[in-house]
Design goal:
518 residues, 5-stranded antiparallel β-sheet, 5 domains, 31% strand, SH3 type barrels, elongated, single chain, alpha+beta
Length: 518
C-alpha cells in the first residue's frame, strides 16, 4: 500500500509540474472554436474543418497551461485552444495577409525579428495565424524572405548535388527561403515536398586541379574549355558510368566537367601517350596539316609498289558514280578468276579502298574530340563505298554502316568537324582483311555491342567498343597487324593513327564533302 501511494504521488508530481489537469468537467463555452486532432495548430482540424459554435455543455477532459484543452466531440476526443498559445520564434519571419507566399505582406514588408507572439490558428502546411499590431496575420516559421527565381531548378534533400534529387520547378515569383548559405545553397519551403535545398544561382565548389569542360556529360563530348584550379559554381550533377559530372558556369555558359572521369581518362591514356611520344591535348592541327602532308607527299614520291599510290598521284579520291559504274562493268564482263584478279589489280590506286582508315578531328575543340572509321565496302564488292564505325554514345546499335559519301557530305557544312585524314596500310590484302573483319565481325554482331571507352581495354574484344577501338581490332584480329604493339595501353584515341610507327601511311588530308560530283 505504501508503494502504491508513493507511485501515485510520483505521477501527481509529474503532471503538476507540467500543469496538466485531468479532471473531467462539463462547462458552457460561449466562443466559436476549431477542434484539432493534436494539441498544435498545424494538426488536422476536426468537424470537416468547420468551426464549432458556442456550446451550452462542453465536456473538458484535460487542460494544459499553454491553453490546450482536450474535449469530447461527436468525432471523439479533440483539442481546442480558444485564447491562443504564446510561442517564441528564434528566427526572423515575414507576416502575410493570407497563408500563401504570394499574398500581400504585413509589417510594411519588413521581417519580424525573433520574438514571442500569440498563435491562434494554423494549417497542415505549416502556416500559423498570429496576433500582430496590424491585426491577425499569417506566418511561416523561419521564412523571412521570398525571392524571384527566373530559371528552372531541382530540389535536393541535403545541400549537396549528390543527395537525393527531388522535383524540377519552373521559375518562381515568390520562392520562400528559410536559410541562405554562403556556398549558394538555400533551404526553401516547397508546396508538396516540405523543406528542401536548392542552388538556383549555383553552388560553390573548389576545384584544385586543371580541368576540361564539355558540351555533354561524357568525356567523348565536345571539349569546349580548359581551366586551371579555381572555385566554380555548379548548377546540376549527373552520375554516369564514367564518373560524376557537374554542370558549371563558365565564360562560355553552363558546361559539364568531371574531376574523377577526366582523371581516370588521363590515367588510362598515359601509357599510349608515353609510347607514341605525344599528348592529344597538345596537338596543333594547323601544324599537323603541313607536316604530315609533307610526309605523305614524300612517301608517295618514293613509292614503287603497285599497291601504293603512284608517285604522280598526290591524293586519294572518291571516284564519281560514272567511274564506279564503268569499273563494275569491267568486273561483270570478267567471268574467269584470272580476269577478275587482273581487274582487281587494275582498280586505280588513287581511289579510296577497303581498309582505309578515316580520322576526323574537331578543329574547334581540339584533339580530345574526334572520330575514326574504316572503309568496309568498295567497288570491288559491287557496292558504293561504305564505312563501319561506332558513331557515339547515342547510337543504337553501337556499331553502324554508312555510305562514305553521305558521311563526308554530312560534315561539309560543319565549320569545325570537316577535315578528313585518310590512312592506308601499304599491303592491299591487309587492308582488305581488316575491312572485311569490320563488316563480318563488328557490323554483323552490332547488337551485341555497347558504346563505352572506359570499362575495358582496347586490347580486349569485349562487348564494349568505340570508334578507334573498332578500327584497331579490325586490323589486329582481322588482318594480323597490331598497329600499336605497346604492351600496356588501355584507350586508343583516333589521333593515335597519326603516330602508328610506320604501320600506316597518311595519304590524304582535306575537306570532307568536296569529292567529284555524284
Amino acid at each position: 500500500m505504501k508503494k502504491l501511494f508513493s507511485f501515485l504521488l510520483f505521477v501527481f508530481v509529474i503532471f503538476s509540474a507540467n500543469n496538466i489537469s485531468f479532471a473531467d468537467e462539463v462547462i458552457p463555452f460561449n466562443k466559436s472554436f476549431f477542434a484539432y486532432n493534436e494539441p498544435k495548430f498545424t494538426s488536422a482540424k476536426g468537424n470537416g474543418g468547420i468551426q464549432y459554435g458556442p456550446q451550452k455543455a462542453l465536456t473538458v477532459k484535460e487542460k494544459r497551461s499553454n491553453g490546450w484543452w482536450k474535449i469530447g466531440t461527436w468525432e471523439g476526443d479533440k483539442w481546442i485552444n480558444a485564447d491562443g498559445e504564446l510561442q517564441a520564434f528564434d528566427k526572423p519571419f515575414l507576416a502575410f495577409y493570407e497563408p500563401t507566399f504570394s499574398s500581400q505582406k504585413g509589417n510594411m514588408e519588413i521581417p519580424y525579428s525573433p520574438t514571442t507572439v500569440r498563435v491562434i490558428d494554423g494549417n497542415t502546411k505549416g502556416w500559423l495565424k498570429f496576433q500582430s499590431w496590424e491585426g491577425d496575420k499569417w506566418m511561416y516559421p523561419g521564412v523571412a524572405e521570398t525571392v524571384a527565381v527566373n530559371n528552372d531548378f531541382y530540389t535536393y534533400s541535403e545541400p549537396s548535388f549528390t543527395s537525393a534529387k527531388g522535383s524540377l520547378y519552373g521559375p518562381q515569383k515568390f520562392l520562400p527561403v528559410v536559410e541562405k548559405r554562403q556556398d549558394g545553397w538555400w533551404k526553401i519551403v516547397t508546396a508538396n515536398e516540405g523543406l528542401k535545398w536548392v542552388a538556383p544561382n549555383g553552388a560553390r565548389i573548389n576545384i584544385d586541379v586543371n580541368f576540361s569542360t564539355f558540351n555533354e556529360p561524357f568525356i567523348e563530348a565536345d571539349r569546349v574549355g580548359y581551366y586551371g584550379p579555381q572555385p566554380i559554381f555548379a548548377y546540376d550533377m549527373k552520375k554516369t558510368e564514367q564518373g560524376t559530372f557537374y554542370l558549371v558556369g563558365t565564360d562560355l555558359g553552363k558546361k559539364w566537367m568531371s574531376q574523377d572521369a577526366e582523371k581516370e581518362f588521363n590515367e588510362k591514356r598515359e601509357p599510349m601517350r608515353q609510347a607514341l611520344g605525344y599528348n592529344e591535348n597538345d596537338l596543333d592541327f594547323n601544324s599537323i596539316k603541313v607536316q604530315q602532308a609533307a610526309q605523305a607527299r614524300a612517301f608517295v614520291e618514293s613509292a614503287s609498289d603497285s599497291t601504293m599510290l603512284k608517285p604522280e598521284q598526290k591524293k586519294l579520291r572518291i571516284p564519281s558514280k560514272e567511274e564506279i559504274e564503268e569499273f563494275r562493268k569491267s568486273l561483270e564482263s570478267s567471268n574467269d578468276g584470272q580476269a577478275r584478279s587482273f581487274a582487281a589489280r587494275a582498280m586505280p590506286d588513287d581511289w579510296v579502298r577497303k581498309g582505309d582508315i578515316i580520322y576526323t578531328p574537331n578543329s574547334q575543340y581540339g584533339a580530345l574530340v574526334g572520330h575514326s572509321a574504316i572503309v568496309a565496302k568498295d567497288p570491288m564488292d559491287g557496292k558504293d563505298y561504305q564505312i563501319v564505325h561506332a558513331p557515339g554514345t547515342d547510337a543504337n546499335p553501337a556499331v553502324g554502316i554508312q555510305e562514305l559519301a553521305q558521311w563526308e557530305f554530312i560534315h561539309k557544312k560543319n565549320p569545325y568537324y570537316h577535315t578528313f585524314f585518310y590512312f592506308r596500310h601499304p599491303d592491299r590484302s591487309v587492308g582488305a582483311a581488316a575491312g572485311n573483319y569490320a563488316y563480318n565481325h563488328f557490323y554483323k554482331n552490332r547488337y551485341n555491342y555497347k558504346y563505352d571507352i572506359f570499362t575495358t581495354s582496347a586490347k580486349i574484344d569485349s562487348a564494349k567498343t568505340y570508334c578507334s577501338k573498332l578500327v584497331y581490332l579490325s586490323y589486329r584480329d582481322g588482318a594480323g597487324v597490331d598497329l600499336f604493339p605497346t604492351k600496356n595501353f588501355y584507350i586508343v584515341h583516333p589521333a593515335d593513327f597519326l603516330f602508328s610507327q610506320n604501320k600506316l601511311r597518311l595519304y590524304f588530308i582535306g575537306e570532307g564533302g568536296y569529292w567529284p560530283s555524284n
